[in-house]
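Supplementary material to the annual report.
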Amino acid sequence: MNNFIVALVGYAVVFLGIVLLMIVVTIIGKFFSAKAKKAAPAPVVTPVEEAPVPAAPTAPGSAGELKLHDVEPKTAAMLMAIVADKLGKPLNELRFISIKEVK
Amino acid sequence: MEILYQNLSNIELQHVIMWVIGGILIYLAIAKEMEPTLLLPMGFGAILVNLPIAEADSGVQAVIDFLFKIGIDSHELFPLLLFVGIGAMIDFEPLLTNPKLMLFGAAAQFGIFFTLLMASFFFPELKDAASIAIIGAADGPTSIFVAGQLQSNYIGAIMVAAYSYMALVPLVQPPIIKLCTTKKERLIRMPYKGKKVSKLTKILFPIVVTVIVALVAPDAVALIGFLMFGNLIRECGVLNSLSDTAQNVLANLITIFLGITIAARMKAEDFLQWQTLLIMGLGLVAFIVDTFGGIMLAKIMNLFSKEKINPMIGAAGISAFPMSARVVHKLGLEEDSSNFLLMHSIGVNVSGQIASVIAGGLILALVKGILGM
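Predicted assembly:
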């Protein structure tokens, strides 16, 4: 009977704890993203002197650090997954700086 | 002349069996690359502590016993220090971009509690049943911590089972995932919305998690505290050298000693019991039911959700990090070579790490409370 109580209460409380965490993390995330949006300076209209150079697109999940040159984000994601797999290292331990198609 | 052959006469069959077991662990580590960082030291340690030398003459035994005493027996120092390194390795960003994924981490702890009930049929002492059940946490340090705190009689077998099954995740999980899901479900695509997570959120996360877990499961504070301390070092941005040391030097050093220290509980007389086989079997049950639990939650959520979830990601809720996430990603690619589930499965996988620590702390609190420890 003790074991049954431990199992039942334990599983229920794990869920409770995780739900609590989920709520707090969601609130924190929303609070700071709203704050960041507010803090962002309003765009200032300035006379165009020269055409801005378009930034290379970034790959999904790269936190904006990976520059893609003539490579589709989908292809880049696949390449990163393959490299991580071949190296036997998780993706979050690798840092890709740029991916360029060699023509 | 007697001194030259006296040790030969001390050899017993049980020593030879332990050498074979040690040899198998070393083989799996080297030839199959299954958790080599732990299985190799454990395998060598199993041979080392089962040499036919009288204990009084063996300095080796004394050193390994000492390591066990300071590293595991006394406040579980080694697993806790290892958690600092693991915390520094984990990037919680995929989880922070989609906190809903945390639920799968909780669901995939089902194996722990199911195995607790199963184990109680074979192991009358609650402390043993609970320690065996925690193999389902799929987390070596948590298993050692709980089994050590509860002073289980089977700590050696529990450690071997925990680390062996973590290594076997790529073999254990795929058939269960395929059995529990249809091809149509495995083909579900989940676009990754790579939202930017602010640095402040990443810094606050380990602190908030520590406080909340302390409120929910006070006995897990040591584990979660050290895990999140490692993560804070990583995310703060001003301690890159410490983060690097924790991820590499500290984690590697502790792993070397942890593996060989575990062998202190692999002496033939403790290890060669029918219960060891039973524990290995129950450990497998725990992993299977964990996988089932995570997948089932995804299926249930799909009944109510507009945005369908690929149920396979639920399986990554076991905290075997990052093997489980990789397994799910690979299975996704097998079904559809352009379906990338890695970011989702990593998010679920790291939530499993947190949930397994909470589960371990709760088991500790409840069992200690019942047993009056």
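The two ends of chain A are 70 Å apart (CA to CA).
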